[in-house]
Design goal:
Layout lengths: L3 H12 L4 H8 L3 H9 L8 H9 L3 H8 L7 E5 L3 H14 L4 E5 L2 H10 L2 E7 L1 E2 L2 E2 H11 L4 E6 L5 H5 L5 E4 L4 H8 L13
Length: 198
């Protein structure tokens, strides 16, 4: 997978004559975090990007643009505790976004574990998830990777106001439809390749 952010970060760091440890010390973080950013397994959050830009002597907008660069083989997840809804949604997503790696989860804890080792481009989350809820899951996923596009899926339109108070990009009513997914793909805050779907 292309890693424009990581490659640029490494180039800028080396131009400044800094090791990963030295840059980490300037940012008060462990050098392993720098290594993960450069490898592409993680991205810095929105608070860290301006600090990083300051240490490297570049405009923060340059780094923000790179964190949102196009991903040719995106990881997409769907989380719904209803197995029938989840199965239908996964099949539809595979038809619409042909180049993606698509995973489904019935339990939020499984989705979080997956997100910790895979950069998620799009997460479609049911709002009611048994004892948990998609609003909390949204916050957790965005802590892991602030550049995740989050779309809420629910049978209850009353949740719309709660959903818009998060950093989600969209809100879909059940059942998931091809048209609904394509409409959301046109609104991505952090674009990725959709395999020509939209």
């Amino acid at each position: 997978m292309d890693n424009p952010f990581g490659e640029t970060l490494r180039k800028l760091r080396l131009e400044k004559g800094l090791s990963q440890k030295q840059l980490g010390d300037l940012l008060f973080i462990d050098h392993s975090t720098i290594a993960r950013w450069e490898s592409g397994s993680r991205l810095p959050d929105a608070v860290m990007v301006p600090r990083l830009a300051g240490c490297l002597g570049v405009d923060s907008n340059t780094l923000f643009r790179l964190t949102a660069s196009v991903d040719e083989n995106p990881n997409i997840i769907m989380v719904d505790d209803n197995k029938i809804t989840l199965s239908h949604g996964l099949n539809l997503l595979e038809e619409v976004i042909t180049n993606a790696s698509i995973m489904g989860f019935t339990r939020p804890v499984e989705a979080v574990a997956y997100a910790k080792i895979n950069r998620i481009a799009l997460a479609i989350l049911d709002i009611e998830l048994g004892k948990s809820n998609g609003l909390d899951l949204c916050s957790t996923l965005l802590e892991i990777n602030p550049c995740t596009n989050i779309v809420f899926l629910t049978a209850y339109p009353d949740y719309g106001l709660d959903a818009w108070e998060t950093d989600a990009i969209g809100f879909l009513l059940k059942p998931l439809t091809t048209e609904g997914v394509k409409a959301q793909l046109k609104k991505l805050r952090y674009p990725f390749s959709t395999g020509g779907a939209a």
